[in-house]
Design brief:
This protein is an all-beta fold and 133 residues long. The protein has strands at residues 7-9, 19-22, 29-30, 36-37, 50-57, 70-73, 82-86, 89-96, 101-105.
């Protein structure tokens, strides 16, 4: 009997002050006017904070956001996704670092992408060395 280690069955719960999120978008995007923006993950242009929906938060987490709210997370401050087969269907969960939450919203934000102003689409336009004394 083989088992798929890439998917978990059940209803996961966050413990402690951890936060689990879902619906973090990495694929292509379509603007309101219908323009398709290609998947930018893995490129300089793809380095920006991302919104995710709060799936669960631990019992000791005292942050103001609630389950179902959307949080903006600093780039790369989340774990790899784990596919979970829940009674409601398959979802992909990630754990985020609490100190990396930049903003919250009760509904899904649209048209907001931070970080694009620091790139020309191919390479970063800011020298990281300028931040070091």
């Amino acid at each position: 009997m083989s088992s798929n280690i890439n998917a978990v069955k059940g209803t996961p719960r966050a413990f402690g002050d951890n936060v689990l999120v879902t619906d973090m978008h990495f694929g292509e995007q379509v603007t309101e006017s219908g323009i398709i923006i290609a998947d930018d993950d893995g490129t300089t242009r793809g380095i920006y904070p991302r919104w995710a929906k709060v799936y669960d938060k631990g019992a000791t987490n005292k942050d103001q956001f609630q389950i179902g709210d959307w949080i903006l997370i600093m780039h790369g401050r989340w774990t790899r996704g784990v596919k979970v087969d829940t009674p409601a269907g398959e979802i992909e969960l990630r754990k985020v670092e609490l100190d990396s939450i930049l903003a919250t919203s009760p509904k899904k934000p649209t048209g907001l992408r931070l970080g694009a102003e620091y790139t020309d689409g191919q390479a970063a336009t800011i020298d990281p060395g300028s931040f070091i004394n």
